[in-house]
Amino acid sequence: MRYFSFPGIFSLCCATLLTACKLYYSVEQINYKPVQVSITEGKRLTMLLCGPCHYNASTKDYSGKKLEDSPGMLGHIYASNITKDPEAGIGSYAASELAYLIRTGISRTGKLMPYMKRPNISDEDLNTIIAYLQSDDTLVKASARNPGKTKYTPIGRLGISMSKPLPYPTQASMELPANKISRGRYLVDNLACYHCHSKSYPSLNIAEPEKSKGYMGGGNRMKGADKNTIQSPNLTFHATGIANWTEEDLRKALQEGISKNNQALAFPMPLYSELTKDEVSSIYAYLKSIPPIDNNVKRKDTNLRDGSSGKALYTNYSCKSCHGTDGKSPFDLTQAFNKYDNETLKKYIQNPKAFGNTQMPAFENIIPEEQYPVLIQYLKMLGQTHAPE
Predict the structure, then answer these.
(1) Residue 38 C-alpha from the chain's centroid
(2) Which residue numbers delimit the Cytochrome c domain (predicted)?
(3) Backbone dihedral angles phi then psi of residue 178, each to the nearest 5 degrees
């Protein structure tokens, strides 16, 4: 989860890196029987599970993007195009091949891609996601766009060479858990919350998440939008974690991207606006049930004492956690001064979803009215200073 997921950067990065090592595994035949499902639900689940890596906000489709939060020592990593294009995307995949890929991390050519591993996903959710990926929805419409070429470092290639493929589940059916706490565990697993919020990527246990070291206790070292190292927070119900959080605090963080202290959550934590109220409640119940961990993660204070300047406001409201100090990385806002007038830009900041941006928090009840002119002037300065020629 972006400062809470997913995304799962090591499994994301490491997995793609295995492709560079040219390691191949046999793809077994599986007895996969597609069933009638809801495409609308498939769209929601795909955005939750696949969107943090594969959805490109600029092109508004699943044509992939650069994973800005991947560890630099592994290389420059790009999430693949998963639109229906038969060459650039996954249009040539059969439903059974997609099922095998999602659960084991093994592609139709036998390449191991560990970031795709979701061994514990239910049959129902798996069927629903595959049906959506093969649907006629605009987000998966065939796109020949190449998101970028992944380049690996020697360290990255060496590290991922030790990753092993998972066997395809042998049980006849993997059902969605009905119990609230079990449902929460299922979501934390398949949203890959524990990837970022456990001790480290190398110590993750994909098959049995709760056996990961420091499970949900935070401290994992990640790359922020400014390229500096940050540590994920502790999400256990300990005094050093979220013991004083209410269910509403968690809902606001997950669905709106605003933390308990009324600040925007920092990149690489994505927004999970597609989560339902019951799903958030299940996650909360599950987090309360796991053993609390005493891990006081040191976090940098991003606030500036002087809140009157545009730079201070840009910092105080965590704008640079997604747009960087220059306004360009990983999400470029430097063209905003050309695209929008001051009033429209203000409305965008207050309610990004109205403009089709589902990943930016809404600041309507966060930023005081009198601060907008100063902040907007600073945003325009960034655009004029750093806009591409």
Answers:
(1) 23
(2) 37-137, 179-291, 305-383
(3) -90, -35
The answer to whether 17 touches 156, Cβ cutoff 8 Å, is yes
H helix or E strand, kind and range, residue 66 = strand 65-66
- Going by the DSSP 8-state scheme, the letter that residue 256 receives in this structure is I
Pick the range with the lowest mean pLDDT from 196-210, 229-243, 301-315: 301-315
Lowest-confidence pick of 8-12, 308-312, 331-335, 361-365: 8-12
Per DSSP, the three-state class of 380 is helix
- The mean pLDDT of the chain is 84
Amino acid at 7: P
Which DSSP symbol is given to 185? H
For helices 39-49 and 123-133, angle between their N-to-C axes, nearest 10 degrees: 100
The CA dihedral of 107, 8, 290, 257, to the nearest 10 degrees, is -130
Interacting residues of 66 by C-beta distance below 8 A, sequence separation 6+: 76, 77, 78, 79, 147, 148, 330
- In whole angstroms, give the CA distance from residue 241 to residue 206: 23
Say if residues 353 and 57 touch (Cβ distance below 8 Å). Answer: no
Q: Is the backbone of residue 219 left (phi > 0), alpha (psi -120 to 50) or beta?
A: left
Higher pLDDT, 41 or 312: 41
Mapping DSSP to helix (H, G, I), strand (E, B) and coil, where does residue 69 land? coil
For 295-332, give the DSSP string.
----------S--SSHHHHHHHTTTHHHH-TTS-SSS-
- Kindly state the average pLDDT of the residues 226-238: 89
- Residue 107, Cα to own-chain centre: how many angstroms? 21
- Distance separating alpha carbons of residues 308 and 301, to the nearest angstrom: 18
In the prediction, which pLDDT does 300 show?
Answer: 62
> In this structure, which long-range contacts are made by residues 185-189, counting pairs with CB atoms below 8 Å and at least 24 apart in sequence?
185/210, 185/286, 186/120, 186/122, 187/279, 187/282, 187/283, 187/286, 188/216, 188/283, 188/286, 188/287, 189/120
Task: Find out whether 34 and 44 touch, Cβ atoms under 8 Å.
Answer: no
